[in-house]
Amino acid sequence: MVKIGEGSAEHDLIKKTLLEGLGTHAKDTRIVAIHKNSVSGSAGKARWLTFRIFSQAVAERRSGNANLRFAWFGASREEICQVISHGFSQCGETSNGQSHGVGISLSPAKFSIDR
């Protein structure tokens, strides 16, 4: 993980998007840090390359539009670390055994919280 420096264009865009999506809750929110995956290690690089190849294949089948979108994934710090280390393949059941359904729940980039 690499910390994105405050004041950088990338940091400001992510912060702005998150806070706008929180609506009235933004005023009570303090962002302490923003990190991004540095895609280090052979497994991480392989997953990134696989994603790029798959995206290109989808784009070719869809007249050049892979329809990629940004989204939020809400989870604990530990769960985020698991996703970064192993991908979303470990998602599905919580540590207490209760299921939240099959698949991954993402929030649209402009709606980081359901208002």
Would you spell out the secondary-structure blueprint of this structure?
Blueprint: E1 2-3, H1 9-22, E2 35-36, H2 41-61, E3 71-72, H3 77-86, E4 107-108
Antiparallel strand pairs: 1-2, 3-4
Describe the structure.
This protein has 115 residues and is mostly helical. It has a domain at 40-68. Helix content is 39%, strand content 7%. It has helices at residues 9-22, 41-61, 77-86; strands at residues 2-3, 35-36, 71-72, 107-108. The strands form two sheets. It has a two-stranded antiparallel ribbon with strand order 1-2. A two-stranded antiparallel sheet has the order 3-4. The longest helix is centred in the middle third of the chain and has 21 residues, at 41-61. The protein is globular, with a radius of gyration of 16 Å. Residues 1-115 form the PARP catalytic domain. It comes from Hevea brasiliensis. InterPro entries: Poly(ADP-ribose)pol_cat_dom, RCD1/SRO1-5. This is PARP catalytic domain-containing protein.
Give a brief description:
The protein is mainly alpha-helical and 115 residues long. The protein contains 3 helices and 4 strands; from the N terminus they run E-H-E-H-E-H-E.
